[in-house]
Design goal:
The complex is a heterodimer. By secondary structure, chain A is α+β, with helices and mostly antiparallel strands. Helix content of chain A is about 35%, strand content about 15%. In chain A, α2 packs parallel to α6 and α6 crosses α9. Chain B is mostly helical. In chain B, α2 crosses α3. Classes of the chains: A alpha+beta, B mainly alpha.
Chain lengths: ~250, ~140
């Protein structure tokens, strides 16, 4: 008899259910399968009504994040062999659930957009002026934060976001940091209005779980603490240089 | 907009609220809450210290510094304060960024300077207290 693994999956149908329930499936165990393969097996062979998100299957698109035994993970990078005793799969915590394992990402997308995660120039130069050149050191200043794949595992791991959904959150702040650190960018003054607002960096009490959960080693907690320091530093320097209210 | 379109535009969702015992679900959450709670001890010690200063100002000072309970409480608060200082300074190299041209000062140097500053300030503060006679050796 072929080996199997037990997977409990959270189900929620907004048309019939008032709250989620767990449904148990027995899935063939294969040494090289990841959890996403097992969920796809359930969809293809056991229960075609199961809803979930996925795309690239190689840890790049950030679509297949789910809570596995209570911990946020990319299911395309979570091997069945590491969970032989079985697993419980739920949608990412702290987000509204639309159906089964599919969460509503509108809140995250709005927050991401609010920090202008693109290169802002005060005055665009014509294409004929050539490209913006950067040294290796200048690239190193933002490279780590540019690895974010917007998978939202950091939001699912963050109890502050769980308690206060208004919090800007780890990934949005890390992305803001990525562009603030970019020598080509001139948008830091625009972003600080969002970052230093009441729901921005100061909401973070440094639990640090965002960095532990990040599958790409981005370290959003570091981005947040660095932004706190830079914001205070900028405020103090500004106050010292223009002590009598020169700020506009 | 018909019923189907309305459902697509604003689907009914379910949000699970964070439970009251969320910090018991993971060891790292629990340690975080413990770290936050240590601040209560430090605030209590500072409040007591300020109260003694107030008594001193009113010439009604009766120091409890020799009391064993107060000594034990102070030792616990000192431990927590040092814990916060050391964990904070351990991260200083990652958080404080000092620009040097197109790069930043190495984190190890910032960390060493931070710890050096703490030790230096402690020694200078202690020397001043001894010099002024507030602490008798």
């Amino acid at each position: 008899m072929a080996e199997t693994v037990t997977i409990k999956v959270q189900r929620f149908n907004p048309e019939t259910d008032t709250e989620p329930r767990l449904q148990t499936y027995e899935v063939p165990y294969k040494e090289d399968w990841v959890l996403l393969d097992a969920i796809t097996y359930i969809k293809d062979h056991l229960d075609p009504t199961l809803s979930y998100r996925w795309s690239c299957r190689m840890g790049i698109c950030g679509s297949c994040g789910m809570n596995v035994n209570g911990y946020p993970r990319l299911t395309c990078s979570t091997h069945l062999r590491d969970f032989r005793a079985g697993m419980t799969v739920e949608p990412l915590a702290n987000f509204p659930v639309i159906r089964d394992l599919v969460i509503d990402i509108d809140d995250f997308m709005a927050k991401l957009k609010s920090v202008k995660p693109w290169i802002v120039r005060q005055l665009e130069q014509p294409l004929g002026a050539g490209e913006f050149l950067q040294s290796n050191n200048q690239v190193d200043n933002y490279r780590q934060f540019s690895q974010c794949i917007n998978c939202m595992l950091c939001y699912a791991a963050c109890p502050v976001y769980g308690m206060e959904n208004e919090f800007l959150g780890p990934a949005a702040i890390a992305l803001a940091r990525r562009y603030n650190n970019d020598s080509r960018d001139q948008g830091a003054a625009d972003r600080v209005k969002v970052l230093a607002a009441s729901d921005g960096i100061w909401d973070c009490s440094f639990v640090g779980e965002c960095s532990a959960a990040c599958p790409k080693g981005v370290d959003p907690a570091k981005a947040i603490q660095q932004t706190k320091f830079d914001t205070v530093n900028g405020f103090v320097m500004d106050a010292m240089l223009t002590p009598f209210g020169g700020r506009g | 907009m018909n019923e189907g379109e309305a459902a697509l535009a604003a689907p009914r969702t379910y949000r699970r609220a964070l439970s009251g015992g969320w910090f018991l679900s993971r060891r790292s959450y629990f340690l975080y809450v413990v770290r936050e709670l240590t601040v209560v001890f430090m605030v209590a010690w500072l409040a007591w210290f300020l109260y003694e200063v107030l008594l001193l100002k009113q010439n009604a000072f009766t120091s409890l510094s020799g009391n064993y309970v107060v000594l034990a409480f102070s030792a616990v608060c000192l431990f927590f304060t040092l814990w916060h200082a050391i964990t904070f300074l351990n991260l200083s190299g990652l958080i404080l960024r000092v620009p040097l041209g197109d790069r930043f000062a190495p984190p190890s140097a910032i960390k060493a300077l931070s710890f050096g500053g703490l030790i230096g300030a402690t020694l200078v503060g202690g020397a001043v207290m001894i010099y002024l006679g507030y602490v008798k050796l």
